[in-house]
Amino acid sequence: MTDKNLPAFLRPLDGELPVEAQNLANSLRVLFTGLEISVRRYGARRSRDAGAISRYLNGSRLPPWEFILDLARDVAAHRGESIKEETLQLLRDQHHAAVEAQGNPASLLRLTQLQLAEADRKSQQSMIQVEVLTQALQDRQTILADVERQLRQIQHREAVVELRIERVTEERDELLEQREQLQSEVTALRDELGRVRERADDLEAECSSLETKLAALEGPEGIEGFTPGFMAIGMLEMAGFARMSRRLGEAELISLIERVRGLCNQVSAITGARFFHTRNSDVTFVTATASAGAETALLLSESETTTMLGDLRAEVRIGLCYGQVYATGGIILGPTVSLTERLSGIAPRDGVLADASLIEQLREESSLHVQGEIQGKYAAQVMWQRPVAGMGVVEPWLLVRPPDSQP
Q1: Which of 15, 48, 148, 227 has the most CB atoms within 10 Å of its CB?
Q2: How remote is the C-alpha of 157 from its chain's centroid?
């Protein structure tokens, strides 16, 4: 590489960078130099922005761990060798130190996720070691029991067959020696198994601690700006998801859920709704106003992104309510939340079923409303009364768009 083609990041680092950021940037620069290509070319190879890569290497922006891992793999592949564990550990420690020094909540959340994944990987390795050592111990104990049996037979034969005493003595000595060796191996394996079990217990405890920390960071109380109170709350349920799970592979299920998350992000950008992903494919969202909640629910019901995968179709059902929502311990709760969940379970396919409070609030937010229509954007049709488990008899409303309205 000539001086003319030399990347700009090879210039001296900013002296005002924190020590942790300087250490990480210096390590990344050493790695990247081993590729012998320009930043622009590497960005094209990895489908990344060349400017972002330059900022990573200059220390002005903290790179994600995925970028660091990809760079280490690319350098190892370029050199025709595998990634050294000590190199990965050094990069991991420097990245963790830089994230903690930065103190950004989103970065700390991602760091905790990475720490949990690493602790889980080590825990699985320890459990495998436990299984291997346990099997080895059982094998040695079985052999030892067989040797003990043979030794008893030889000792008995020694007592009753004096004419073959010399041969029996030789066999006995061999078995005694073999028994001593096996006893030493059993003792060593038992000690090693104890150490591995202690390590596995420590890693499981670390996983539990990290899961608790992650739940606190991801829960509603850990989301910046979330304030319990009166709001619109909706729940999307994919009624056919269990049936689809039996027919689809892991990669297809993950792809479907990612599409659901992508759709939620798009709708959030339009309506300002906050989404909370719960079990499987179920999604809960909240908005400050009833109109924003209605728009969010209808946009979700009108999209086929969440329902189609090949020739399979899941039934999307959405419940929508307005009222007091409480929060504690990283969860949202209250009668309004419970009614929303019940309505999502009885809503028609690809439909939005709302309670009377939501419709009333929606009309109050509208300056004009006519028979069956609200602001010309929504239409509400009262349904028949029905009993709902734990909520008594309710009279829900079917929320749709007027025939001539566009979403």
Answers
A1: 48
A2: 65
AA letter at 262: G
Ramachandran angles phi, psi of 372, nearest 5°: 80, -10
How many residues make up the chain in this entry?
Answer: 407
Cβ atoms 290, 322 nearer than 8 A: yes
Question: CA dihedral defined by 338, 340, 346, 348, rounded to 10 degrees?
Answer: -170
Strand partners, 352: 318, 399
pLDDT band at 106 (very low <50, low <70, confident <90, very high): low
Per-residue pLDDT of 161-176, as tens digits, reads: 777 777 888 899 999 9
* 19-31: pLDDT as tens digits: 888 899 999 999 9
Decide: helix, strand or coil at residue 218: helix
pTM of the model: 0.45
DSSP assignment of 216-248 equals: HHHSGGGSTT---EEEEEEEEEETTHHHHHHHS
Task: Answer yes or no: are the C-beta atoms of 75 and 65 closer than 8 Å.
Answer: no
DSSP 81: S
